[in-house]
Design goal:
This protein is α/β, with parallel strands linked by helices. It contains 7 helices and 7 strands.
């Protein structure tokens, strides 16, 4: 990491683009902090096929993450749509492959947090965020949330929790991120970036 600027890895799976937009807004927050940058990376969908059937590079959006992206980050934000109150299988599949990083302590002491999008307002946002934190704790990471000093956390009528940024996408036509949701994403990214620089010292 000494030959490059430190970065916050914003690692996500997005099926309809809502979680990807959260990731983009978090990246904007990271960009507010001098001396660190955001690196957006996605994970491919999983398939019941018994052989590889997807290209190694996505057709659009963020490149797929490698384990070196994860190992070398100064901080981490992971995001997923909710699946029955938990993260989606593609992100879990990627995290399940990181046992070697866990054995080597590659992520110990680095700050990390989570973000999610749901179709319904009470569709498991908070349980998804807290279950996404479990692997981060096993890796020895320092959990970062959103404090109530962020005014939008107390006034939002859409997404947003102290456990991390969220988006209420709706069950019909996909709703765009609200101004509160964008504000909270950017505040989260900035907070994570500042923590990453402090903890790297």
């Amino acid at each position: 990491m000494s030959d490059q600027m430190p970065y916050v890895l914003v690692l996500f799976y997005s099926r309809t683009g809502q979680t990807a937009e959260l990731a983009s807004q978090i990246g904007r927050g990271v960009a507010r902090v001098n001396g660190i940058e955001a690196r957006l990376r996605s994970v491919p969908p999983v398939s019941p096929d018994t052989k590889a059937s997807l290209p190694a590079v996505p057709d659009s959006g963020a490149p797929y993450a490698s384990k070196s992206d994860l190992a070398d980050c100064a901080g981490l934000a992971i995001g997923s749509p909710t699946r029955f109150g938990n993260m989606a299988a593609p992100l879990k599949h990627f995290l399940d492959s990181t046992g070697d990083l866990w054995l080597g302590g590659a992520l110990e002491g680095k700050p990390a947090g989570a973000f999610t999008s749901t179709g319904s307002l009470h569709g498991g946002q908070e349980t998804t965020l807290t279950t996404m934190m479990m692997p981060l704790l096993h890796h020895g990471m320092v959990i970062c949330g959103l404090p109530y000093s962020e005014k939008s956390l107390g006034t939002t009528e859409t997404g947003g929790t102290p456990y991390g940024p969220t988006h209420w996408a709706g069950t019909g036509e996909q709703q765009p991120l609200s101004s509160h949701e964008k504000t909270l994403c950017q505040a989260f990214g900035e907070r994570l970036a500042r923590l990453a620089l402090k903890l790297s010292d």
